[in-house]
Predict the 3D structure of the following.
Amino acid sequence: MQVSIHVNETDLAESLRSYLERRLRFALARFRDRVGPITVRTSAEGRGQARCRIIAELLPFGRVTAEEISQDLFSAVDRATAVIGRRVGRELDRARDARLGRESVRLAA
């Protein structure tokens, strides 16, 4: 898993990077061989809002995206990593079900 982290407008850069990497490893560890490069963008916006956007490349299917906005940057990271873990699992399940469905039709013919 190759992770590219872009932290904008925050003074917690290093602690946030290590936290992000740990949360992504936890959320995506079981899909390690199916997940390609991951891009994470975080920003602390005005009005006390923080944004975290995660884009994961699934091999060979495409992209899965999760974006969360919260009052706290760390809670936005928590929610976005949880969402990306669920979405990656769902996409891989769909691909497996489609593949198994095609094979069973061939066997029936």
